[in-house]
Request: fold
Amino acid sequence: MDFGNLSYLFLLWLIPALVFFFMYSFMKKQRYIEQFCGPDLSGKLLGQVQRSRQKLKTFFIILAVFFLIMALVQPRWGFHWEDIKRTGVDVMVAVDVSKSMLAQDIEPSRLERAKRKVQDLVKMLEGDRIGLIAFAGASFVQCPLTLDYGAFNMFLDYLSPDLIPVPGTAIGDAIRKAVESFSRTERTSKALILITDGEDHDSKPLEAAELAKKEGVRIFTIGIGKDDAGAPIPAGDGSGGFMKDRQGNMIMSRPDEKTLQKIALETGGSYVRSVTGDMDIEAIYKNEIRKNMEQKELTSTRKKRWEERFQWFLAAAVLLLLAEFFIREKSTAKPTEK
Reply:
């Protein structure tokens, strides 16, 4: 036996409260009648009132309330097994954690905007598996493909430039790492969302995109960066200054949209520039991945489904209330004259 909502059990205190109320009201009523009419007159005036019927009506009311409470608790017994199939797409997210992602042309920073985009994505997922890759001058799988979105968000929170000591932005390495993370036996239902400012440093991203296409991986790119003018990169040493080259010139980080567009185009994906809100990630997930990509069966389990029985208690309560309504307190027989 099982129950659907045990939170309503606290209402059972109404049963002893009703018993006490009716007992008190009967005693009070009888006392007032005797005080007003006297014992002899009250017996003549109320001679046809059947005490047993009053008690029966009261019992029906209390029992009906009990059954209504039990209906709210949703008792269940008897069950059947139901096959639950979960379908979706494998979505790997690669997030750039290089120093350039600390640029603050987008508040609070490019990296924080990227993390918020991924958080918005997780909220939209409809049963898909998701994984996480962090990359800078090197790449590694921060979280393998999983259906545990809570665990994924924990790994996402740890993303920072300190994770990867190798400087640079190797987009090609991130793509190749993502391809390795997917199943090699399947050629569909594989998507890579690449979030970066696009400043690649000789990792041959277009060649990596060709490899991804051969493996059936569609790449969707999101460019992080406000405009082509670029933004200075915080030094990260607590001084409040910015990174400079060997000549002492301030290093400006500019988004490379052309490269990101070519990567997406090569694999049949799409490119969007990051905007405030979740319209960009929604366009990729709902309009591209969920709508146009083939979905596969990710898990298949059996779940025990209990049979709902609350309707029996509800029906019993209704019948009791109807019976109470039609029971007359007074006897239809005429009193005998003495």
The chain has a mean pLDDT of 83. The CA atoms of residues 82 and 303 lie 5 Å apart. The first helix runs from residue 14 to 37.
